[in-house]
Amino acid sequence: MRVAMIGTGYVGLVSGACFSEFGVNVVCVDKDQKKIDMLEDGVMPIYEPGLDDLVETNVKAGRLTFTTELSDAVKGADAVFIAVGTPTRRGGGHADLSYVYAAAKEIAENMDGYTVVVTKSTVPVGTGDEVEKIIRETRPDADFDVVSNPEFLREGSAIADFTHPDRVVIGTEVERAQEVMRELYRPLSLIEAPILFTSRTSSELIKYAANTFLATKITFINEVADLCEKVGADVHHVAKGIGLDGRIGKKFLHAGPGYGGSCFPKDTLALVHTAQDVGSPLRIVEAVVDINDKRKKAMANRIIEACGGSVEGKIVAVLGVTFKPNTDDMRDAPSLDIIPALQDAGATVRAFDPEGMEEAKPMLGGVEWCDDAYGTMDGADVLTIITEWNAFRSLDFDRVKSLLKTPTLVDLRNIYEPHEMIEAGFTYSCIGRPEQ
Q1: What pLDDT sits at residue 91?
Q2: Which percentage of the chain shows pLDDT scores above 90?
Q3: Could you say which of 12, 43, 49, 424 is the most buried, measured as most Cβ atoms within 10 Å of its Cβ?
Q4: What is the pLDDT of residues 119-146, one digit of tens each?
């Protein structure tokens, strides 16, 4: 089979590489010549564990190629995936679908023979209908079907998520299109991965509903953590106690500074606006969006309180700036709220992140970037952990104490035990756990 993947961002590049690993011939298309040049040189434009090796293997095998020429990629393709960005539109929470619609028009102008056009980008309900309309108006003679096939890739484990998924959702009720999609995903049927065929509209909503539910779960445990602090309970124990209930589950019950990343913030906003537009508002999701925004902004206050109520003229050492570990993604990361708030309060911020600093530098001005974790601490008044990289889970605390002016640690990810830190001589602040 032959596939064209339009867009070599996170979703497009990972999906294209994984399909080629399945034995499919994949051409990845991007208008950014610099990005295509990097990929042809074996340089990944994003950080994702294992992706560089996967790309290299399939390029050498001749199954994976890169180009800026959409026309060449689309001609003769059995399926063309639209995997372009759908950022939040300026001035509101709606998804910006201009890249999707532009891709649809260009695909229509160049496809020949029966083609399945697949929206892989996260798009609001009804987008598939509009894509179909654009293609039909551009090429009335075209032989095609439009299918929804949302991605469920977690940054940091995307390859495993694609090759061993919880589920594959395919939105089409046309048997001809279903057969093409079955053949593409046949390697997953061999390992009995659940493949759900549904309507295009249901498929589009499944993606938003899934991400919004997870964002709600994170926000719920964060609010429970705040309650734990007031009543003296331990959010770790509460989360474990409720997570052992199979109806609830233990995942996404980790208290912290709020969710960020490329999906949850924009998808919750987009779903809120979709629901409002059709007169069926989602009050729970509206509250989730509001609570999460306020939570990220409030995290700086915890660091300020740990410094006696003021960081004026003080040095704050920050470990981790990406929205989660094992990625260089800075989109809507809590650090983007926390660090500027500390700077506005008069602090000097020194920071280190294993993979995210180059992405972060244009977004966080005035930060002193360090070569390693310990470089942030020399003479600092307080150490704070914002992202729970594994490299920060086993710090040498004798060395940390020798570097800090005062042994104060604000752990916004709860990666250490309060009693152990206090026994080690630290003033320790965390999320939703009693100070022992």
Answers
A1: 67
A2: 96
A3: 12
A4: 999 999 999 999 999 999 999 999 999 9
Listed residue (17, 81, 27, 20) closest to 49, CA to CA: 17
User: What is the per-residue pLDDT across 256-301, written as a single tens digit (0 to 9) for each?
Assistant: 999 999 889 999 999 999 999 999 999 999 999 999 999 999 999 9
* Separation CA 349–CA 356 (nearest Å): 16
Q: End-to-end distance of the chain based on CA atoms, in angstroms? A: 61
3-state secondary structure of 220: helix
In Å, how far are 125, 147, 148, 151, 197 from 97, measured between CA atoms?
Answer: 12, 16, 15, 17, 24
Entry pTM: 0.92
The CATH number of the domain covering residues in 2-198: 3.40.50.720
Angle at 361 (CA atoms; ends 357, 367), nearest 5 degrees: 95
Phi, psi angles (nearest 5°) of residue 348: -95, 130
pLDDT band at 434 (very low <50, low <70, confident <90, very high): confident
263 is catalytic: yes
Find out whether 101 and 130 touch, Cβ atoms under 8 Å.
Answer: yes
In this predicted model, what pLDDT tens digit does every residue of 338-386 receive, in sequence order?
999 999 999 999 999 999 999 999 999 999 999 999 999 999 999 999 9
One of 18, 28, 263, 430 is an active-site residue; which one? 263
Distance CA 240, CA 234 (A): 10
Which residue is associated with the tokens 């069926």?
280
Cβ(94)–Cβ(273) below 8 Å? yes
Contacts of 125 by beta carbon, 8 Å cutoff, 6+ apart: 201, 204, 205, 208, 274
Whether 194 and 168 have beta carbons less than 8 Å apart is answered as yes
Residue 400 is which amino acid?
V
- Tell which CATH classification among 3.90.1300.10, 1.10.1040.10, 1.20.210.10, 3.40.190.10 matches the domain 208-264+271-284: 1.10.1040.10
Residue 146, H or E segment: strand 144-148
CATH class in words for 291-429 = alpha beta
Distance of CA 126 to the CA centre of its chain: 23
Using an 8 Å Cβ cutoff, are 107 and 7 in contact?
no
Q: Which of 240, 292, 239, 246 is nearest to 265 (CA)?
A: 292
Rounded Cα distance between 355 and 49, Å, is 11
Contact by Cβ (8 Å): 387, 355:
no
* H helix or E strand, kind and range, residue 170: strand 168-171
Sketch the domain layout of the chain as residue ranges: 2-198, 208-264+271-284, 291-429
Indicate if 208-264+271-284 has the same CATH topology as 2-198. no
**Looking at residue 407, what DSSP letter applies?**
-
